Amino acid sequence: MLGRWKGAYDTTKRMKQSGSSKNDVLARTHTIYVENGNGTFNLMQEWDKVRDQPRYMSQVGGNTRSDRKDASKKKGKGKSSRTGKAEALEIVEEDWDEYKQFKKKEFKRLDKIVLAQQEVAKAHQEATRVQEEASRIKLEAIRAKKMKLFMKLSFKEHLDDYNKQVLEMLKVELFDN
Question: How high is the pLDDT of residue 66?
Answer without folding.
Answer: 46
